Amino acid sequence: xxxxxxxxxxxxxxxxxxxxxxxxxxxxxxxxxxxxxxxxxxxxxxxxxxxxxxxxxxxxxxxxxxxxxxxxxxxxxxxxxxxxxxxxxxxxxxxxxxxxxxxxxxxxxxxxxxxxxxxxxxxxxxxxxxxxxxxxxxxxxxxxxxxxxxxxxxxxxxxxxxxxxxxxxxxxxxxxxxxxxxxxxxxxxxxxxxxxxxxxxxxxxxxxxxxxxxxxxxxxxxxxxxxxxxxxxxxxxxxxxxxxxxxxxxxxxxxxxxxxxxxxxxxxxxxxxxxxxxxxxxxxxxxxxxxxxxxxxxxxxxxxxxxxxxxx
Length: 312
Known about the structure:
Blueprint: H1 6-15, E1 17-20, H2 26-49, H3 65-72, H4 77-80, H5 88-94, H6 97-107, E2 111-113, E3 118-122, E4 131-134, E5 178-182, E6 193-195, E7 225-227, E8 234-237, E9 243-245, E10 254-263, E11 276-279, H7 291-308
Antiparallel strand pairs: 1-8, 2-10, 2-11, 3-10, 4-9, 5-8, 5-10, 6-7, 6-9
């Protein structure tokens, strides 16, 4: 897959987004959907065995089964949202060459996949799944710690580079391209994204939740753009472009996943959710080539948090 064309790169720089129609085929993403269906099935069986749901809802499909489970037991929502679930097909998408080729043209040859990828099961009439206007870099990692990127953790390490991440005292300013990928067709009715083209060029509001035209006068003349998408499309977004996900007004789940990348030579934002080096010319030996390698990183972080007494 080639990098962005000159026209697409210009649009990304000036408007903050590029809609990549047909980056994948629906068939390409089907194994990932099957993997998520398997996790929903596990949740259904566990919750039903614990008496938390009225049924296994085994006759429901991908777009409705998880919704039925959450209707019975709202706590099930937390089982799927965010980056909690990691499987081989998820890793394949995170490390897909189509994404890495595009990202390399933005951040350079050292590509780090951030651990803050997010699965978004947007349920109907479920306010916690709705987002108002925001941009994706309005927080800072304030606690100082060291994390060994590939092989576990060592809080006594003195290295500030190489396999050890630099001290994290604030979110660094750097390119962080984000891909938003729907796993079902999305439109205005079920909560597709709206973006504010050009909004990334102006001072971010740095408010947890905000509305266009409220905090930044430069946004006054910008017009929101509705972005309907099909399965196989991907929306590339600048980390500062304002966007919103309106309520899902249908009777089915709007499934999507978003993935963030950065320059692998720069400090990472989140050590609590570790990412991995996905491509490197300087340190090819440190590239994580498979699901098992990334699983080990995440397990090491989880164990360290559980046993060290250090909160981060």
